[in-house]
Structures are given as C-alpha cells and as structure tokens.
Amino acid sequence: MTPSAAAARKFVVSYPPFETTIGHYVIRPVWWGRVPPQAWSVGDHVHATLVELSSVSEGRGVVEIQGRRHDLRSGNRIVVFPGEFHRLSSLPGGTMGLHFLLCYVELRNAALNEVEETERGEIHRLMHAFLNCHDRVRPDRGGHELGRLFAAIQGQLETRPPGWREACRALLRLLVLGTARLFADPDGRSGLPLARAAWRRIEPAGARESAAELMDRVSDHIAKHLQDQPKVAEVARALGVSLRTLQRLIESEGTTFRGLLSRTQIFAAKYLLVSTDLPVKDIATRAGYEDASHFSAIFRRQFGLVPNAYRALRSGE
Question: Which residues, in sequence order, are CB contacts of 280 under 8 Å at separation 6+?
Fold first, then answer.
C-alpha cells in the first residue's frame, strides 16, 4: 500500500532486510510506511504475495476489501491478505493518519509436521488461526498498544541507533503476535485465541454457522468455480443450505447473486492481470467470461481501459 497523495509518498520507508520468527513462521518485512494525518486516498490495488497490517493513528476513514466496506477510526487495526483487492481513504473533508507494514509470512518447510503441545505449538496454532481469520478490521482492545508498537518500530527505522535491528526484530514479534491475538480471538472468549474456523473443530456438532462464515464460504466457492459460471441454486446445493437462505444472505450484503458473481469475476481478472503474464483470452476464460471480447468490453466499461492497457499501467507503477 503506497498512498497516492504525493505529500504522503515521502513517508514510505524502505530499509535493509531483517526478519523474525514466530513459532514455525518467518516474518519478513518488505515495507514500513507512515502517513501523517491528512486528506488522502489509495485506489484499488492488490498484493499478490504480501500480508498488509495497518494501524489508524488518528482521524477517521474507510477501507474497502474485496468489495466490503469498513469504517475506520483511531485505534482500528486492519489486515489484508495476499490477493485481496482493497482501497483506503480518509473521510471527505477529514484527515486520517496511518502506520502500515507489508511483509512475507512464510511457514518453514521443516516445521510442517511439528505442531506439538508446547509453547511453539501453541504459537503455531495462534498464527494459523490468525492467517485463516474472517475479520479484516478490529478495534485494538489494548487502546493504542499496537499503534505504539508501530510507532516504536518506525522510530528505530528512521533513527537507526546502535542495536536497531535487534530492537526491530523484538518489536516486530510483539506487533505480529498482538495483531494475531486481536484478529484470531474476535470475542475474547479463549485463553489461547482461536479463529472462528478453528472453533468449528471443537464446537459441538450442529453448532450454528455465522452469517459471516457462510458468506466467506459462498465467496470462496464462487471464486473456485468461476470457469463453470455457477448458478445460485448450484452454490446453495454445494454448500448444503437452502436456496432461500442463500438469497437472503446475499441480499443482506446489499447485492444480488449476479452482482456477487460479477464482482468476483472482475476481482479475479484484475488479480491475474497484475500478477501473471497470461494472455487476456486465458484470463477471460479463468474468470468465467464468455470470451475475450466480452471480458474486454465489461472491463473497459467499468475502468475506462482495456485489460492490456490496465496491465501496462499497473506494471509501470
């Protein structure tokens, strides 16, 4: 995430690489950024392989992730996972300050089968729950604790006193663990925070699935079957819910099945345009369009550019 406002660009910080380990995971930062409170916006964009963590330091704004809008205020934490299209902005006539981190989060190959009942195993389960969580915006239960960690790391990077790398590693570990706890335990109901996906493994059979979880399953199913051009009845049958339940759920999101399918198609197409070298006709097929000309017409109508022009524009950024 790089703010489009020219005044904000100078606050994006790059630095010599360092990394830290958390359980079986390696956290490797790529960018730290700080946007002082001001009016600004960032258009629709995606990170193919990076996790983005953000902290609102001041003011109010809005973020849209995969078509879902979230209002932001001071103290909010935001997480965006690889492949998710998103945009951010301060509110019209207002300002917003932000700290953000883009990083690789990698599971070490040697650790794939090493989840044991140890401290490392508990941390591994926490990180796994976080990386599979459903929420994308959460208030910081500790007030501005995570925001202070962002600011402390930023200060180390900007001044680089003796021992700054080790300090950054320690602070980064605290920041990621704190964020993981915040997102993996939405209701603060467990000693070891677990994501809702993990709770389903220990809840009694027949425990009711939340609307958010079902909506995530709907979106995932559509995304995986775009080439089949799925119908609403087919999706309901595949997910084991009634047609009326699925229709009510989609309506509660302020859209229709056709609108949800179209939005998923265009997100998939944009992601493939910026992250692969596939020909436009292959992208059209993968995203479930009739043919390349149909895809190009829809894309141009929505974004004012044909797909190849959009790809060229993004590759030059």
Answer: 292, 295, 296, 307, 308
Nearest to 194 by CA among 286, 128, 108, 276: 128
- 211-315: which CATH topology? Arc Repressor Mutant, subunit A (1.10.10)
- What is the CATH topology of the domain spanning 6-199? Jelly Rolls (2.60.120)
pLDDT surpassing 60 at residue 249: yes
Chain centroid to Cα 146, Å, comes to 18
- pTM here is 0.57
Which range is most confident: 12-21, 189-198, 241-250? 241-250
DSSP state of 80: E
Boundaries of every domain in the chain? 6-199, 211-315
- List of E strands, the chain: 12-13, 20-22, 25-38, 41-45, 51-65, 68-73, 76-80, 86-90, 96-107, 137-139
